[in-house]
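Amino Acid Chain and Its Fold in Token Form
===========================================
What this section holds: a protein sequence and its matching fold, both as plain text.
Structure line: whole-number tokens from a learned vocabulary of local backbone shapes, matched to residues.
Purpose: to set a sequence beside its fold so the mapping can be learned.
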Amino acid sequence: MYFAALLARTEDGWEASDTELDDVETLADLADLAREATTDDETVLVCIEQDGLWFGVVRVDGEDDPRVFVSDAAAAMRSSYGEILLSDELLGRQPEDPSALDQLVDLDGTEEGEPEGSEDDDGAARAAAAEAETAPAGPLGDADLLSDLGMDEKVLLSLSPEDALTEVADALGCTDVLEAVR
């Protein structure tokens, strides 16, 4: 079970709305969704928590690139919603190039497509693919993304996933607004 909410900073304070992420496939899609929550270039936070296992905060300020913090990247990687937040850039890896897959056809040199290598080659390839899909255990991203809004980096890093969004809302002064959409 997951919970996702948008917190938009307005002239009158914070406004909250719960949101569905079913149509969101990338971090860019999520940033666009956040930008739609405000008429000005105000700050919008996307807050996501999943089953008390991990939480994430994405900060979108106007047209700037989104800033992301995830409490446990390894746990988030096992979630389709977490994968949205874990961009190649955040994970420190080269972006995937879909056209590169087309170049991998029949690289083994056989006409039938049967590999001539040993099963060890297959195991090494599987291990390399698995490593590429892993994320480090623990926090990842910009832990300082809320410091100008009242939550210090050290505090954000110390939050437990069960209470994190409530603690963030407390620091921002919008607990009632967030709880109204929970």
User: Anything to note?
Assistant: The radius of gyration is 20 Å. The CA atoms of residues 31 and 160 lie 25 Å apart.
